[in-house]
Every structure is written in structure tokens, then in C-alpha cells.
């Protein structure tokens, strides 16, 4: 259960180029949809729906950071669809497989690949190091 008063320890930002590309593509699609709707073309409504979805995605990317690290967990907010929360108590290790993903190793040996596409390149190694520190602290404080 989330503690509403808990404050994040660190934020890891998105890649600015990706955010600008999503904003520009949503703007272009919205302009095309608006022109088609003004001309009373039925394709206007067909292009307006993906344009609105892309616009909401672009606004969401502007408002939310890519990753947030708390005292006992971290959240990945890659997109409107992919939002995950991982607890340090469930993990025993982390590995950087490439610059696009990390592998989270759980206590039972399961491995989960976590995408880092969209995170600022300079933050990826720092993010991995912070997670390693937090997991190491969690391992030292466990009673089992």
C-alpha cells in the first residue's frame, strides 16, 4: 500500500528529443485532422482520434518524469500504457544488459527486463547505480 506522504528521493528525466518528436508528431496529426474536419472530410474523424491520443501522450510525457526512486521502491513511467512499480524487498540484484534496458533479478531467481527507452542517456548509468545501492541496503536490512 502506498504511503501518500512519502516523498521521492530522486527523479530521472526523459530524453528531450523523444518528447519533442512526440509533441511535433501530435501537432502535425492534429493540424491535418483539423483541416480535414473543416473541409467536412470523413477522414478527419479517423485521424482526429489518434491525434488526440498522441496529444494526451505528449502532455503526459511533459508532466511525468521517466523514473522515480523512493525509499522502498521505484516507479517506471514509460508511457500512458506502461507504468510499473517495483519494490526493493522483492529483488536481489540488477544488471545493465544494454543502454536500452536493465534486468531486475527477483529473490526467486526470475529475471525481468525493464526498458529504458526514453530515459535521458546521462541518467541511465546513474539510475542503475542508485538501484544497486538501494537493493544492497534492502538486502542488508532483511531478516530472512
Characterization of this structure:
This protein has 144 residues and is of the alpha+beta class. It folds into two domains: 10-63, no CATH class; 80-141, no CATH class. The protein has three helices and seven strands. The protein has helices at 16-38, 43-63, 121-141, and strands spanning 10-12, 67-69, 73-77, 83-87, 91-98, 101-106, 111-115. The chain has a four-stranded antiparallel β-sheet, covered by helices on one side. Strands 5-6-7 form a three-stranded antiparallel β-sheet. A hairpin with a 2-residue loop joins strand 5 (91-98) and strand 6. Helix 1 (16-38) runs antiparallel to helix 2 (43-63). It is elongated and about 70 Å long. The two termini are 21 Å apart. The mean pLDDT is 90.
